[in-house]
Structure formats: C-alpha cells, structure tokens
Design a protein that fits this description.
It is a single chain. The protein is built from 17 helices and 29 strands. Strands 15-16-25-22-27-20-19-17-18 form a nine-stranded mixed β-sheet. Helix 10 packs across helix 14, helix 14 packs across helix 16 and helix 15 crosses helix 16. The N and C termini lie far apart (72 Å).
Length: 626
C-alpha cells in the first residue's frame, strides 16, 4: 500500500510518499534505494515518469531506471494518484495532501499488503519546497489525501490545516465522493445535519420520482447540442453538472488574490455568523431574531478570519459586475436574451403614463432597479465549516455556480412520499418540511437526499425551486448568477407559489434571498415572444401558461416590498409607471394566448397535472402578429 501526502498552500510543506510495511508506514526517499519484500521476492520501488513508482529487481536497476526521472515527492505523488484513478470534479490535483486525524482513518487499521523491508541508507523524512505540479492544475485549497494503490480505498481531506490540526477536530467521511472533511464544530445540530449529508448517495445516482442530477462534458459535442441537453434536463427539474470549464483568473483565499479580484478590501459587507446562529437554537422559536446572526464588517476582516476556528462566516450575494460566463451558458440565459431583444422598446409615455403599446420618442427601457442586474452575477465567500440550511433560491430563479477557489458540497432534497399530480399536496409536504423556523430541525423528514461535490473545473446549474443545503469544507470563493429560461417557467411559477402562497396556502418561506427584479424579467420575456416566434414558434404549453399565471397575478401579491430587498416604490414613481406599462403589454400578449387556448384562469390551470411537466410543444406563431 502506498500513501502520498503534501502540505497546505500557506504553510511550510512536507511532501512524502510512504509504503506500508510490517504494520507501519515507512517514508520512501525516491533518491535512495529501499529494499522491500513483495510476496516471495525482494524488489526496489523506483521513480517512474509515467506511473510515479514502479518496482525493479536490483539496486543497479534502481540507479539505471531512476536516471532523468523527477524525484520530488509531489510530482511523483501526482503521477501515482493519476495512475490510481483519483480524480477531482474538474480533474485538478487537489488530492496531494496529508492524512486526516489518525483516530478514525483506514491508515490505522493496517489494511493492505504487508511488506518486509530493508532500507539502504534510510532517511526518515524527505522535504521539498511547496510548488505547483503543473501550471495547468491547481492544488491550492485542500489539505489531505490518502492514495491506496492495491485495492484499498483512498480519502482526500478537504480542510484548512489550522482547522484540521486542532486537537478537538474530528473527521467526517463522504464515501460517495472519496473525501473527508472536518466535522462541523459550531453547533451540534449542524454537525448532525452535515453527517446526514455525508452518508447520502451521489445526486447523479438518485432517480426517485425523477432524476436529481445529470453530468455533462463541455467538450466533444457542438454547443447547440449541449444547450439542448442542458435545457431538457432543467425542464424536468433536474440539476446539471457540466465538467470542463473554470474561470481563467487563478486565485487563493487570501488577501492578495482577493484584493486583485474584488477591490477594495476596505469594502463594508454583511455576513452570517454560524456561532451567533447556533445561539438561536437555545431560544424558543418565537424569540429567535435572525438579525442577530448578521454581522457587518470589512472584507479585509472577513478574509483574515477564515483561518480562525472561532469564526465560521458566510457572505452571500456580493455583486459581481464583471462576471466570467461559461460559453455553454450564454445560449440559455433567456431573460438576458429577452432584455436584448426588447431593449429598444419602451412602454411608458414621455409624461410617465403606462401604456401597452410602443412609445415613440423614447429609446427603449428607461429605468431599472439595481437588483435586476445584481441578481445576474455575484460572488459568495464562505469560511470552512459553514452549513447553509435547507432552502431554495428565490425568487423562482435558476442558479449557476462555479468555484474560484475551495470547494462546496451540495445536498439536493427531493420529497419522498408525495402525490406529484397534486400541487396542493406538494405545497403541504414542503410546508411540513419547513415547519420549524430553522430547517435543520426537519432536514431528514420525508425526503430523499443526494450530494454533489463542486470544485474548480465544473459548473453546477440548478432549476428553479430546487431545495438544497450546502456545506463548505474549506475557505471558498464561489461565483455564479441567477437567470430564467422559457423551458422552466412552470417551475418558476411553482416556486413563486411556494414562496408567497398565491393560492392562500399557509406556506412557510424557505428562501435565501428575495429579488424584486424577477417580475421585470418575466414581463420582458413575454414582450419578447412576438419577435422570438418569427424564428422559433414552438414553446412548451405549460411554460407559456405559467408566464400567463405570473403576469396576471397582482404584483403586490409577491410581497417583496415587505422585506429588506424590496424596491420601496410609490405608485407615482417613474419606475412604477414603466413596470405597469410593461405588465400591460405582457397581459396583452398573454391574453391572446389564453383566448386561443380557451383558458380563463391560468393559475388554476397550472395546478392541474404533474407539477414538473413542461407540457407538449405548441405552435404560438400567431403571437408574431401582435
């Protein structure tokens, strides 16, 4: 059995390769001969430029075969890991790191083939400088891995060394992903919920009622086919993990790199504090004030605190106005496409009066709330150990996410026992799941869970209304954004119903944030239809009815103004008039559909049938006449 270990990015590193002999680990110095007995023969492990290590029969062969071969442990460990088939989400070298706490790992159990040995000029340790294996790979955030070459399982430890080296730290195995993390330490309930996640299957293996996640590659097929595959999966409520893309700007979770990426560090931000949140569990639900878990300070302070075990923080939705967009996403961002299609159309008169017709003399869209932009692209910065409680992303948006540095573990949550053809039953079951103000108290009730490991080199695309919780094992910077597509409008409509109880249900809110810009984007998506159908007249029936349901609902029913993120508009504000004009135009277009299809109440129509069914494709080319 062979174990490869390395240090962490910001610490003096010891990179070692060890061989398990006589029930203990012996460090192998690739520069010197080590004689071991394998089965009935004596052999010498020798550096190999292809597999990292091979065995030869004599010391002479060792000297001959090792000429010109790299002898630094980190390079050889990388080759050994590749040969063993160890792969990260994005094919990175993040597995070159030291073993977890010795208390509960396979290393102490003596598994593997025992080997008698003799050491020629043994040196107990071999230390090299920290450095990259290849400019094409990064191994920046992860601290621990064990690679077992003779049929024994391996684990990577995803943890900051200043956290995992704490004597009180314990490790948690995620067998579905071949990793270990440090057990969540700020709150017992959080630790139990994280353990529940760790014992779950991979999301790609879960097909309960419907598939939880599909994995696709971003290379090897035409972009149009990839767009089609992504859209088809999302339309069924299935998340998509696309491999083979990552942001160009390399970075680590430190002041220098974050200063280059997001100046200035003196910026004031707000974050959730896991320790303050844990105190809420000691209070009765009626006494819990969630404002207490929110802390305000500088970005500089937030970054520095990431190595302090007493600090476990999460900063959501930092606006990113210069985002990196994966090329396979550009073709499915329908809300952006609709804005570009209709951007020169105005639906408010020069006197500020709403109208459903084009307004001459105005060069398109006049005013926009910043949220309509902010929701398109953002960064999330999180300390290692933070658990985001079960929720779904508001307000009916899809979400894409990718890692700049670090890693995150998603747990997707699907209802187990539910009548999928009865949307009232779906709503009631989610209401029961979220009946406690802090959903970690019901995280395992009537649900099926599957997990996703997201690392640099992959993009996770999430349908509207998908319930999930997220564990962040190491300090992480994640980028992403929200968007809308025509194929998932039935899911957006259902999510809005769950969010706001538009059918008068007693719905428990389960949102991470509110986005008042959602309705504006929906209106523009409807307004774009008369132009879009001239080239593509086929749209899913229930998705078009869902657009009609959202547009025909009184905007005040969505209640976003009741919350901090609300627009705070007055009836006579210029933006209010423009929104009213756009809604009038959208109602005019959707009215034509409802008359054509003989539908009088689109909201009730959406309560019929399978809630996640987008419906058959129908020709709506008649809208081109409007």
């Amino acid at each position: 059995m062979v174990m490869c270990t390395s240090g962490y990015q910001d610490t003096p590193a010891q990179h070692m390769i060890s061989i398990f002999v006589q029930s203990k680990w012996v460090v192998w110095n690739p520069s010197r001969a080590l004689r071991v007995r394998l089965a009935d023969a004596f052999v010498y492990p020798t550096p190999c430029k292809f597999t990292g290590m091979k065995y030869v029969a004599s010391e002479t062969e060792f000297l001959q075969e090792s000429k010109g071969v790299p002898k630094d442990a980190i390079t050889l460990a990388y080759l050994i890991a590749i040969d063993a088939g160890v792969k990260g989400t994005g094919g990175s070298t993040d597995y070159l790191i030291p073993p977890v706490s010795r208390s509960n790992t396979a290393l102490d159990k003596g598994k593997g083939r025992e080997v008698d040995f003799e050491m020629a000029g043994i040196e107990p340790h071999f230390t090299v400088e920290e450095g990259d294996v290849s400019m094409e790979h990064d191994h920046e955030n992860l601290r621990g891995t064990s690679v077992y070459l003779f049929g024994v399982n391996y684990r990577r430890l995803l943890a900051h060394p200043q956290i995992s080296s704490n004597p009180a730290a314990s490790t948690l195995d995620w067998s579905a992903h071949g990793i270990s993390t440090v057990t969540q330490w700020t709150c017992k309930k959080d630790a139990v919920a994280t353990a529940f996640m760790a014992n779950s299957r991979k999301a790609s293996e879960v097909n309960h009622h419907y598939r939880m996640l599909v994995e696709l590659g971003s290379h090897g097929k035409p972009l149009r086919e990839l767009h089609r595959d992504i859209r088809q999966a999302l339309a069924q409520g299935t998340a998509v993990l696309v491999h083979g893309w990552g942001p160009e700007q390399a970075m680590k979770f430190g002041l220098e790199d974050i200063r280059e990426y997001r100046p200035p560090l003196s910026q004031t931000i707000k974050w959730q504090d896991a320790s303050e949140r844990a105190k809420l569990f000691k209070m009765p639900p009626s006494a819990r004030s969630y404002v207490n878990q929110i802390v305000e300070g500088s970005l500089h302070r937030f970054v520095l605190a990431s190595v302090d075990p007493k600090s476990c923080w999460n900063c959501l939705d930092l606006p990113s106005l210069i985002p990196d967009i994966p090329p396979f996403l550009r073709g499915i961002l329908d809300d952006r496409m609709a804005m570009m299609t209709t951007g020169t159309e105005a639906y408010v008169t020069a006197k500020g009066q709403a109208t459903k017709g084009d307004c001459s003399g105005l060069n398109g869209l006049q005013l926009m709330h910043f949220d309509a932009w902010r929701s398109c692209a953002w960064d999330v910065m999180t300390h290692g150990g933070f658990l985001t409680y079960p929720h779904h992303d508001a307000t009916g948006f899809l979400t894409y996410s990718y890692i700049r540095t670090g890693a995150k573990l998603w747990a997707y949550i699907h209802l187990d026992d539910v009548n999928e053809f009865d949307s009232n039953d779906v709503a009631a079951k989610w209401n029961a799941y979220y009946k406690h103000p802090m959903a970690t108290e019901t995280y395992d009730k009537n649900v099926v869970v599957g997990t996703v490991l997201l690392e640099k080199g992959a993009v996770l695309i999430q349908p509207p209304g998908v319930n999930h919780m997220v564990y962040t094992p190491v300090p992480t910077v994640m980028s992403g954004g929200h968007f809308l597509t025509y194929e998932t409008m039935h899911l957006t409509e259902m999510a809005l119903t769950l969010d706001f109880g538009l059918g008068k249900e007693d719905i428990q809110h389960a949102m991470n944030a509110l986005h008042p810009g959602t309705l504006r984007k929906v209106y523009r998506m409807v307004i774009a239809l008369p132009t879009l159908v001239l080239e593509q007249p086929l749209f899913h029936e229930r998705c078009i009815i869902a657009l009609a349901s959202i547009v025909s609902t009184d905007p005040l029913s969505f209640g976003v103004d009741e919350y901090e993120e609300g627009v705070r508009l007055k009836a006579k504000d210029a933006l209010s008039a423009e929104l009213a004009g756009e809604r009038a135009r959208a109602l005019h277009i959707m009215g034509a559909v409802l008359v054509k299809w003989n539908i009088t109440d689109p909201w009730n129509e959406m309560r019929k049938g399978l809630w996640r069914d987008p419906g058959p494709l129908k020709d709506i080319s008649f809208l081109g006449l409007l």
